[in-house]
Write a structure and sequence with these properties.
Layout (H helix, E strand, L loop, with lengths): L9 E2 L2 E2 L2 H13 L8 H21 L17 H5 L14
Length: 95
């Protein structure tokens, strides 16, 4: 039985070695974002988790599945491309 190859990863035109790609794969699979307990932080952490799950699936040879965050939120990466807060919402004020 053969060992699966590490993903081919290129960063800014530099091809990573197998050992470097392994380090990136492990980092992606174990990343845990703590972005705070407010609404913004929870949404950001869930979005990171969803996007990293997609990246990890690609890295291990599975199709990326656009998934909702584990929290059940409905924000997409496009929401964050437009800035925070998403259109139509206001950020909660800290008291």
């Amino acid at each position: 039985m053969s060992t699966p190859q590490e993903p081919e990863i290129t960063i800014n035109g530099v091809q990573l070695t197998s050992a470097q790609a392994m380090a990136v794969r492990i980092a992606v699979s174990s990343f845990d974002a703590d972005c705070g307990d407010d609404k913004h932080g929870k949404v950001m952490a869930a979005a990171y988790e969803a996007r990293l799950n997609e990246v990890f699936r690609i890295m291990i040879g599975l199709p990326a599945i656009r998934s909702l965050p584990a929290s059940g939120g409905t924000y997409s990466s496009a929401d964050f491309d437009r800035g925070w807060p998403p259109p139509g919402e206001t950020e909660e004020k800290k008291e």
